[in-house]
């Protein structure tokens, strides 16, 4: 699983028919700052993930990729590589709260 922050949405009016009705999110993986263990640090790359949970911009989410993503959408033939499987409430590391949903 990947911890990521939702940065926006993606609209594609022309796409594979199996993707019709899928909400697409632009997400950026985050990690715990190695220097201080006191913040979530954004990575440099982004992913496009499908979302059926209703995540919004700024939310921290859990993402799965590959075959796990296809299983998460209940269609192993779906052309999906990343799926939101959870909206994170809090992230705690060594008894420090690094993230709390608003």
What is this structure's SSE topology?
Blueprint: E1 2-10, E2 23-32, E3 40-42, E4 47-51, E5 60-65, H1 67-72, E6 82-87, E7 90-93, E8 96-100
Antiparallel strand pairs: 1-2, 1-5, 2-3, 2-4, 5-6, 7-8
Rounded radius of gyration (Å):
14 Å
Average pLDDT across residues?
A: 86
Tally of structural domains: 1
Q: Helix- and strand-based class? A: mainly beta
Distance between the termini: 22 Å
Tell me the CATH architecture: Beta Barrel
What proportion strand? over 45%
Query: What is the CATH C-level name?
Result: Mainly Beta
How many E-type strands?
8
CATH topology: OB fold (Dihydrolipoamide Acetyltransferase, E2P)
- Helical amount: under 10%
Low-confidence stretches: none
What is the string of helix and strand elements?
EEEEEHEEE
Tell me about the largest β-sheet. 6 strands, antiparallel
Count up the helices: 1
Specify the CATH homologous superfamily.
EutN/Ccml
Shape: elongated
């Amino acid at each position: 699983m990947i911890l990521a922050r939702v940065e926006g949405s993606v609209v594609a009016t022309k796409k594979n028919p199996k993707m019709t009705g899928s909400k697409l999110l632009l997400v950026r993986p985050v990690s715990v700052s190695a220097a201080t263990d006191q913040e979530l640090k954004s990575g440099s790359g982004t992913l496009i993930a499908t979302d059926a949970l209703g995540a919004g911009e700024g939310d921290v989410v859990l993402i799965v990729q590959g075959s796990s993503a296809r299983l998460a959408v209940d269609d192993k033939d779906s052309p999906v590589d990343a799926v939101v499987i959870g909206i994170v409430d809090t992230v705690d590391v060594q008894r420090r709260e690094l993230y709390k949903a608003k």
